Amino acid sequence: MSLIQLKPQTAPAASGKSHLKQATQGHRFDAELVAVTKRYGTGPAAVADISLRIPRGSYCCLLGPSGCGKSTTLRMLAGHEDVSEGAILIHGEEVTHKLPVDRGTSMMFQDYALFPHLSCLDNVAFSLKVRGVATRERRAQARQYLELVQMDHLADRLPNQLSGGQQQRVALARSLITRPKVLLLDEPLSALDPFLRVKMRSELKRIQKELGISFIHVTHSQDEALALSDMIVVMNDAKIMQAAPVREVFETPTNAFVARFLGGQNVLNSNGREVSVRTDRCRLGHATGLRSVEGQIAMIEYQGNIVRITLQTPLGDEMTVLQSDTDYFAQNPQIGDTAMMSWQASDEHILAPT
Amino acid sequence: MATRKRKRPLSFYVLATLLGGYAIFLYAPMACVYVLSFQGPQGGMSFPMVGWSTHWFEVLFQGTGGQGVGDIPAAFRRSIRMAVIVAVLSMIISVAAGMAYRRKFPGANLVFYSAIASMVLPGIFVGFGIALTFNLLGWRVNWFTSGIGAQLTWTLPFGMLIMFIVLGRFNPAYEEAATDLGANARQRFWMVIVPIILPGIIAITMASLTSSYEEIARTQLNVGTGNTMPMEITGLLTAATSPVIFAVGTITTFVSFSLVIASLLVMTRLAKRRSSRTAQ
């Protein structure tokens, strides 16, 4: 199968391995939000004055609790929601008031929204049909995209005859056949069982790398965001808390919300400042030169190669220690024991006040 | 299975008896009508049967064969013609109204309640009112003006209610997906919405067809010259003294069942056509 045919129309072939990538168009960012606000009626803004730049060919996750405005942001990018203030750019071109089909975006819906009366093949061919492409040609093209998502063997099935994972593959093919510059995914994995979720997320990443276009993926799952993202945008309360490469967001969260929401960090007070310390850099026990806090062991979760120990401090805060199984069995702490949790001062990361 | 073997509770037998009694009450009298319609030429309007024949059907189809029997075939044609037009109009208006009600517009509630209220208005007065208004304005009542209008006041509220429910359950993501894939408003409607709500559209059409066919309260004063079927039968009930009326009953039932079976066949064929696309 020739993937050159499947990459976006705007991409002329380049040499070497980069032949799958989006070619230079003079734009630096695949998608940009400039001071975008969304208001419904007179209430508080659903999205309040956010600005964001998504570099070319990125897998970007919008992460946040429900109601934080991440889905609204995605829908504004797609053109399914009007923008109250601000501007949206795709490939450096303003699309704020353009129709969804003229933006170069394509959206994959949370419940896939596959047309129940059409076979998989005709679902994928739908965008060609509305453009007046002849039956034979559009079905041939649709079959290629079904091959890309490994669903060509079920091309004649109706959506309700497919499993959740299969439906998702078809929905992906249906979005990709429009050759989008940016693919928008609204909680695409939330309807799948955990095993399939992990399988499909690597599939999404594979296809994104193959096509070289940007994927913007809304999720409330930290694991998903960490596993997939080149760039994570953490949102809360209609605002962006942090937008940065995944490692930066994980290792140096800007504030306590990001640290807590992404997990893997203990948020604590040290010398009057709010700091975060990675849970895997904390240990049970105390030694000179280490900073420490005392607490009672509230929970021990054995997870095979690591053990997660939760301490409750006298102030009621919960602290987590991730220990290797060898350390854990050497110390053998019990639930209810009083214990010290300690860390090195150099592992502290100072948080901005929220 | 374990659940099958469990002893049935008393309530099962009580409810089963009730259902059985209901079925007998519903169908036994009609069975009498069907049997009596094959009464011999010398027979009367009640049992016992004096031989068997199709004499009364022949009388019926000859038009003015018996005492008090009008031109039934002509009345049937009038009723069917009107029912088909009313069904098509109800279907189109209901779908249009259903689509309109997917967004809020000023006065939406008022329009909705006034449409629904005509369900509870006493039909005979609605019919009387329409006839009176036509009279006041100096217009002649006619089957294709006041007649169809009067019947629409009866079929439309049901059609619209069905459509509100069907479209209320319609997932807007289908439309958004279609928009996203480049469909314009017309393509969205014909290629996505209509195929998905097709069973509802067929249901409205069939319901309007049958309720127009058997409507009398609103129709009788507004249909102008020429009786419809229900009017003819009401006439028969008061005037006829022969088993012709039973023959009418048998034929009417046959027509109704044919309609129901035809629409079921259409539905199953639609369903089959969908599943036949399934690769083996």
TrEMBL record, chain A:
For this protein, the record's PANTHER family field holds:
SPERMIDINE/PUTRESCINE IMPORT ATP-BINDING PROTEIN POTA, SPERMIDINE_PUTRESCINE IMPORT ATP-BINDING PROTEIN POTA
Q: Where is the signal peptide?
A: none
What are the recorded GO MF terms, alphabetically? ATP binding; ATP hydrolysis activity; transmembrane transporter activity
Give UniProt keywords alphabetically: ATP-binding, Nucleotide-binding, Transport
**One Pfam family it belongs to:** ABC_tran
> Which InterPro entries does the annotation name?
AAA+_ATPase (IPR003593), ABC_SmlMolc_Importer (IPR050093), ABC_transporter-like_ATP-bd (IPR003439), ABC_transporter-like_CS (IPR017871), Mo/tungstate-bd_C_term_dom (IPR008995), P-loop_NTPase (IPR027417), Transp-assoc_OB_typ2 (IPR013611)
Reply yes or no: does the keyword Nucleotidyltransferase apply: no
ABC transporter domain span: 31-262
A GO biological process held by the record: quaternary ammonium group transport
Q: What is this protein called?
A: ATP-binding cassette domain-containing protein
GO CC terms, sorted: ATP-binding cassette (ABC) transporter complex
Domain of life of the organism encoding this protein: Bacteria
Q: Where is this region: Disordered?
A: 1-22
Automatic annotation (TrEMBL), chain B:
Q: Tell me how this protein sits in the membrane.
A: Multi-pass membrane protein
UniProt entry tagged with the keyword Transmembrane helix: yes
Origin: domain of life: Bacteria
Record bears the keyword Hydrolase? no
Q: Which UniProt keywords apply?
A: Cell membrane, Membrane, Transmembrane, Transmembrane helix, Transport
Cell compartments where the protein resides: Cell membrane
Record-linked Pfam families: BPD_transp_1
Q: What does the entry give for GO biological process?
A: transmembrane transport
Residue ranges crossing the lipid bilayer per the database entry: 12-36, 80-101, 110-137, 143-168, 189-209, 244-267
Give the record's family classification. Belongs to the binding-protein-dependent transport system permease family. CysTW subfamily.
> What name is this protein filed under?
ABC transporter permease subunit
